[in-house]
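Q: Could you predict the 3D structure of HTH luxR-type domain-containing protein?
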Amino acid sequence: MGEGQWTAVAAAVEHPAMASAAKGFGEAWMNTREPITMNREKIDPENVAREGELKEMWDRTGFDGLIMSGHPVDEESYSHIVIYRKMSKGAFTERQTQMAHIVLSEVKWLHAQGWPEDRGATIPKLTPRQRSVLTMLTGGHSRKEMASALEISENTISGYVKDVYRHFDVHSQTDLVRKFSGMT
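A: Sure. Here are the predicted structure tokens for HTH luxR-type domain-containing protein:
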């Protein structure tokens, strides 16, 4: 996924209407607390993500089909993995969704990788922009790359980077990556 595409996905995911669009997954997850995998059609049967401003935002991503998979990591934490499909490829079938569920359910280590020591408890306290910067920092992006992808100045990015470092009590991008990979 290119940086512009990643930025478009992050913006769509942060849109307030996504709570309604993802309601099907959230309800199913809360009812089972077991590994669960659903395609877009099951997650959003009312097509909330295909209306108005949210539709325009998802159209900018170039993705239409998706599979979301949730897995408990421990009593208090869970892992979500989302697989996106280009618009030109169409929706994921029920069979493809079931195959993804089987694979993602059996690869237990995948869901435990990259958790910070606090199991992510502090992440929701960040603003949406700070979360975007955090994701890009842990992905190894430079400030210049982040500024370009988020369409803001490098100076503004520097402010967000400082906020993220302060929040996680680190002094460098390397320290942040170590903290999230459990190497500290």
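Q: Anything worth pointing out?
A: Residues 3-112 form one domain.
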